[in-house]
Fold this sequence. Notes:
Blueprint: H1 2-7, H2 24-41, H3 46-49, H4 52-64, H5 69-82, H6 88-97, H7 112-117, H8 121-130, H9 146-151
Amino acid sequence: MSTAIEVMGMSLPGDASIPAIDPRKLGESRDVGRTLMRLLEEDVRPRDIMTKQAFENAITVGVAMGGSTNIVLHLLAIANEAGVPLALEDFERISAATPYIADMKPAGRYVMADLSRYGGIALVMKRLLAAGLLHGDAMTVTGKTVAQNLEGISVIDDQPVIIAVTRPSQTPPAA
């Protein structure tokens, strides 16, 4: 769910994959505080960010990474609270169009700490955005769009965790 929240634009880029004990978390904590103060000053509310596009982005990345039924239950509940129309049909539509590109546990070989070393969730998002599968114009807590956030994020393309969108795995992990 941390991945979904990051993809929806409700947490700072990199948040979902940085391990809790990683020294980068301290800097991120400071950034979160500054971001929260800016959002309050600008009167930006969660519902300004949690749009249909944001939920569709979260579903897309979740599917691409082999997400579980947990993401369905939680995103439907969050969307309901945010007043965003979201239905099982949205998950089905997006799932049919989204390649499974992650070699992540439990079915794969890697964990989030591994993904963090190669660029984190941004690596997944950059590949999906380049393939036209994400809404790049969705707004985030940074005050920038998804596409703008991804421009400034360095990722390592030659790595084993996330495969190319053009060569997806045929078997996503069982939910």
